[in-house]
Amino acid sequence: MIETPVCIIGAGPGGATAALQLNKLGISCVVVDKAVFPRDKVCGDGLSGKVIMHLQRIDPEMAQRFRKTVLKEDSWGVRFVSPGRLHIDVPYKPNYSKVTDQPAGFVCKRMEFDNFLVQELKRADKHVRLFEGVSAEKYKLTEDGYEISDAKGEFKVKAKLLIVANGAHSTFTKEVAGIKMEPQYYAAGIRAYYKGVTGTQEDSFIELHFLKSLLPGYLWIFPLPNGEANVGMDMLSEDVRTKKVNLKKLLTDTIANDPIFRERFKNAEMVSPLEGYGLPLGSKKRTISGDRFMLAGDAAYLIDPFTGEGIGNAMYCGVYAADQAATALQSGDFSAEGLKAYDERVYRALWPELQLSHRLQKLVKYPRLFNLLMKAATRNKQLQELVSCMFYEMDIRKKLAQPSFYFKLLLNR
Ligand SMILES: Cc1cc2nc3c(=O)[nH]c(=O)nc-3n(C[C@H](O)[C@H](O)[C@H](O)COP(=O)(O)OP(=O)(O)OC[C@H]3O[C@@H](n4cnc5c(N)ncnc54)[C@H](O)[C@@H]3O)c2cc1C
């Protein structure tokens, strides 16, 4: 039996960030992941500014290593395509310069990004012990900690505190934390890598195609290095069920038959399997800690309901869970009551944004409104700049989530 103050289940962005922050605080931990890295994770691979911000805050040299060594595409802006197929190109920063500005985000295969984080864990071996290829299956709460083991009981860890960061399909979340999947607050997503997609924006803007059949979800094309692109779709699980949608078929049919995509994909080749995974959306608040445990990342249901972004939020949780672990280890208070401070900090940071995104998600369900907005935007430079910051700037999103904004826009057309 390995004994440790903190055991982290999952070495994805949530778990790895928690371990890196614990390392920074000088606290030992054990990290267990069922995969052996490098491993793939179904994702759009879009890394927002939050990701680089966290790397920078934990260790500026680590952020520098990420910038210098990891294969990724710089991200300068977004192409929004309305259900009526109008598009606007919106840079994250107006009048950006690719020479003097740093890119606001990146598109980076999870195979590369998650492996980078795991390599950082291996560097932090003074405080972090990483066990790959071990699936945590059994959890036993005792008086002085949690005992965790694999299915056969061959691998055992005892920890004072548990950080559960094992992703969207976490059984701990369901069975111990009691958080159930609700299809109106959950999305299904699929993606494949393609080579040779044409017609991408000259500075590799990421593309969000709000097709009528998917609203409030969208089809995305995120350009990657070496002529590859991450192509996928997401849709609310509720809609997938009620409309009996086969998302994989919908994607391949759309690419084969839609006149615009058919042309753009005519010489393209799918270079990976087409795979799907769940997106637990942070559309409502949940209790994300309990006696001797904290949930982090997808296991805590914190994906942005509008953008589908979850990596940055998982990293927020990782940092906060580690900080809370430090407080609990110092005070000796591992109770559900004591760990509530973690929930409060996570929601203080993320709830305003999640709530707005939930409102926006409800608004973009209406294709006619969307088309009108896009028509107005193609003619209005100010509005383009407004949308430009939508994915990153809270104040802008706040405006966009208010019905009055749309009335004013329509009146001023
Ligand atoms: C189709 C799709 C597209 C998306 N696109 C984007 C995007 O473009 N940008 C973005 O920011 N977010 C995106 N997301 C969301 C993003 O993928 C997640 O929010 C993010 O991966 C959450 O990180 P995490 O560390 O919480 O979980 P994960 O990345 O899922 O990591 C969990 C880890 O736990 C391990 N694990 C699981 N069970 C066990 C176990 N029993 N024992 C030990 N280890 C275990 C797994 O092997 C894994 O390494 C997308 C999601 C989907 C499905």
SSE topology:
Blueprint: E1 2-9, H1 13-25, E2 29-33, E3 46-47, H2 49-58, H3 60-69, E4 73-75, E5 77-81, E6 87-91, E7 105-107, H4 110-123, E8 128-132, E9 138-142, E10 145-149, E11 156-164, H5 171-175, E12 186-195, E13 206-209, E14 219-223, E15 228-236, H6 237-242, H7 247-257, H8 259-264, E16 269-270, E17 275-280, E18 289-290, E19 293-295, H9 311-331, H10 336-363, H11 367-379, H12 381-388, H13 394-400, H14 403-411
This protein binds flavin-adenine dinucleotide.
Flavin-adenine dinucleotide binds next to helix 1, strand 2, strand 12, strand 15 and strand 17.
Structure commentary:
The protein is an alpha+beta fold and 413 residues long. Helices cover 39% and strands 23% of the residues. The chain has helices at residues 13-25, 49-58, 60-69, 110-123, 171-175, 237-242, 247-257, 259-264, 311-331, 336-363, 367-379, 381-388, 394-400, 403-411; strands at 2-9, 29-33, 46-47, 73-75, 77-81, 87-91, 105-107, 128-132, 138-142, 145-149, 156-164, 186-195, 206-209, 219-223, 228-236, 269-270, 275-280, 289-290, 293-295. Strands 1, 2, 8, 9, 10, 11, 18 and 19 form an eight-stranded mixed β-sheet that branches. Strands 5, 6, 12, 13, 14, 15, 16 and 17 form an eight-stranded mixed β-sheet that branches. Strand 5 and strand 6 (87-91) form a beta hairpin. The longest helix has 28 residues, at 336-363. The radius of gyration is 21 Å and the shape is globular. Bound molecules: flavin-adenine dinucleotide (FAD). Flavin-adenine dinucleotide binds at residues 9-15, 32-35, 41-46, 135-136, 165-168, 189, 191, 232, 234, 277, 279, 297-299, 303, 308-312, 314. Pfam families: FAD_binding_3 (PF01494). This is Geranylgeranyl reductase family protein. Residues 3-182 form the FAD-binding domain.
